[in-house]
Amino acid sequence: MATVKINGKEITVEDGTLILDAARQAGFEIPTFCYQARLSRLGSCRMCIIEIGGQKKLQPSCVTPVMHGMEVFTENETVKSARASMLEFLLANHPLDCPTCDKGGECELQDFVFKSGPRRSPFSESKRRFHDKDKILSPVIIKNHNRCIHCERCVRICDEVVGRTALGSIGRGAKIMETSFMDSTLDCDHCGNCIEVCPVGSWMSLPYRYKARTWDLKEIDTVCPYCATGCQFTIGARNNEIVRVKSKITTGINKETLCARGRFGYNFIQSEKRLKKPLLKKNGKLVESSWDEAISFIKQRFGAGKKTAGIASARHTNEELFVFQKLIRDVFKTNNIDLDSRFANKWVTSSAIEVLNLAAGGISIFDALKAEVIFVIGSAISNENPITDYLIRQTAVDRRKTLILAHPRRFKLNSSANISLRYKPGTEGEVIKGITDFIEKGVFHGNVVGDISQVGEKFKNAKNITMFLGADILRLDNGTNVVAEIVALKGLLKKAGKNIIIQPLFDRCNQRGARAMGIHPLFLPGLKKVKENGMDCGEILDAAKKGEIDSLYILGEDIVSMYPDAKFAKDALSNIKFKVVQDTFLTETAKTADVVIPGASYAEKDGTFTNQEGRVQRLRKVISPVGNSKDDLDILCSIGGFAYKSAKEVFDDIKKEVLGYKDINFDALDGNGALVKGHGAENQGSRVKGQGASEIASASPRNDTSSNPYLDEYPFLLITGNHLFHSGRLSQNDDVLIKLLAEPFVEISEEDAKELGLTDKENVKVKSSEYEAVLKLRVVKGSQKGVAFMPENFDSVSVNQFYKKGQGIARVKIEKQV
Amino acid sequence: MLTDNTIENIKKALTKYPNKQSAAMDALRIVQEEAGYLTEDALLQVADMLDMPPPELNEVATFYTMYNKKPVGKHHIQVCTNVSCSLLGSEHIVEFLSRRLGIKKGETTLDKKFTLSEVECLGSCGTAPMMQINDDYYENLTDGKIEEILKGLK
Ligand code: SF4
Ligand code: SF4
Ligand code: SF4
Ligand code: FES
Ligand code: FES
Asked: What residues make up the domain containing B139?
């Protein structure tokens, strides 16, 4: 510990603390430009200079650690005048075009000059001027080099946090320019983190350009509706219109960072295409109706007949999902309820719930990342959970840590990984078994590309291991085998006295919360086992095909677009007598419905999401639902006849039934959210394990890729997932995200491309036994041979059309388009 | 596009360095020696060969004034305008050359014989003001001396 005196005030801090931090702890604010806590130290802007007793030269406090007995002055005349001089230098070249700068009002340069700057400038030289017109670098980024003060925060965040290195400092001296390669968008993730960290208006958001003055915005903190990383952000609205999303350095696990989806994906809210009125099917056509008519029609028709079912999407809040399962279970008396339509079956999802220990309390990602070995399998994490990717990248810089990525595709985080494993989709279990066998017996079998023995060694030598399991595993019809192998590996490692954390990586914001709310055919709220097993999505469709389902309530899920066999899903749905779809857009599924009711987007309602860590976070209403659409909770309550007046009232009921939420205070949830506790661990293990280990085994024949008859004709295994700029089918309605990527593509390895004589960006024909389409090819160096990937985000070529029910992963061939 | 010869030479150079990135300056020199200047394509290709993000390689290429980003004339005149030279009149020298050659700094004469550039300190402050023409230094410059030098250049 070191005791220092700052402006006469004594304070004791850890050895090695920066003077800047010590001063802040003591309550003195020091202005900074180039300093940013999560970035490497630069010490170049000299804004943070302070005086140290006994030293003649002023020192930068952002790179100078305290020493015991040091006396520091941050506010004396010498410091103040030096600070003013530094600002004077910056202003010498700054255009001072604040009246037309989007940053005006929240510009650090403006604020510091106001507070500590010179009031006059003797410079008579003309200012440097790079360009007259700002440079549009991408559909979301616009740059003004003239305003730059060269703090290099943008360059560092892009390199160190985002992992893109799309920016550099070009040139030298006063004419240096922080920009991309030749002002292009080469290799850019369009995350806008450079915009966020820029202290001035040099990097700016193009969609927000000239939309508002910052002080005119109504700003509300809320949580991202896309992936389950659960980033916090602030929505800025003006005249009931959302004009921007901004991250905050003080809030959330993401702090100042966001990905393109979170930062720019708010435009779908005000899309022309939003559903604004209820629709009823009359004479085979969906026509607009009043709310009264729609609701009474549903009340009259829904649940009539033998079998009812409900399928929800994990984009809904805990409160909505809790009420939805009440509606299905309590009012319509059935356990036929499931979440999402992409996953294999209820045994796979329930075994994942078991191995991920979702019934236990949440674990902070920062605790999970303390382990020496971090192992990620089943998620193209850079695309699915971009901010989790950032956090892992920043941890992996530590040389004492080992980052192991196992996935068929090569993606961004691979460049930070110590070991990368490649495998064929469906053989995840073999990868895990290989590791177990190596640790146990020193030998292993299987077709994994990469050094399993090295992985095994790392596992053996570590005391703390964190495994991240991605949502890919939930899609595998042999997913239970994978889970079984993970359980075995975990058991072995535990026996060896190691601490193991297994964390989920989910691609929808509330996948974890949805399970806890009882959106599963086997589990009630709090993950309590049901008395009578319900049907999962696949079984519901099977039954529907046979004409055994009378009514189906679909809350926000697009089954026709997502179920891995589009044709089958459509056929099955057409056999259901009465279908209600509640959604924000007229999805392919909604088009098949008898009643379509317009729900609200994430910015139009209150509630909570539970992210993949188990962190409960508040979603806050910013604007009222567009047109005649309504808050989803109100809709569900009026159909079910529930008396809830607000999300908070539902939350209070959730607390009674879902034990892990018991101590959470809805109103007190702040930017850090609250981690859930265990839902009563006492019956956890026995419950899930006891429940049909044999059922699990029989429900999932091993996906044997070697003896498959399709393999010769259709040599590629086709996998899917979200593109970095998209999320399910929602984002294609966002007119900004769609500009970042408007068309699907097919991605294969460089090896395959060479063999087939195909080159990057050419058009190719992709064909399965079910469907064929022409797509742009993307070639990736270092991906697994024999695997093709297509994003699942586009109606134009819906990837699930290539899939055939019962086939597991789709098989396709790829040919030159002639 | 880099020529096969350039690619070969870069590959050879790579063997001299502990990792690919440290060959960046050498690789750029090789490209420039053979092509005269660095194009966007060349930078992208070299970046790929060195496993380096293109913006980082571009940082190197633009930091050093010795790398030409545009075609240059037969005689590349680089006048130092850093502190020592500037105190001893480099501003005048740039002006003089500019008038004499009929081009502004950064430009090349129509006959492609001369390019005039302004550069940072060339480490010859003791003999300021000075300039470099292609690989040679010319020091303690005066107008008369410059006339002589230019006359000597064909
Ligand atoms: S948008 Fe993101 S990836 Fe692109 S330059 Fe900025 S920080 Fe880098
Ligand atoms: S563009 Fe902004 S963040 Fe980047 S160096 Fe300039 S002032 Fe700093
Ligand atoms: S990482 Fe996920 S939660 Fe965070 S901004 Fe991106 S999509 Fe939203
Ligand atoms: S903030 Fe300390 S030198 Fe820039
Ligand atoms: S200042 Fe001109 S050579 Fe150093």
From this structure: 75-152
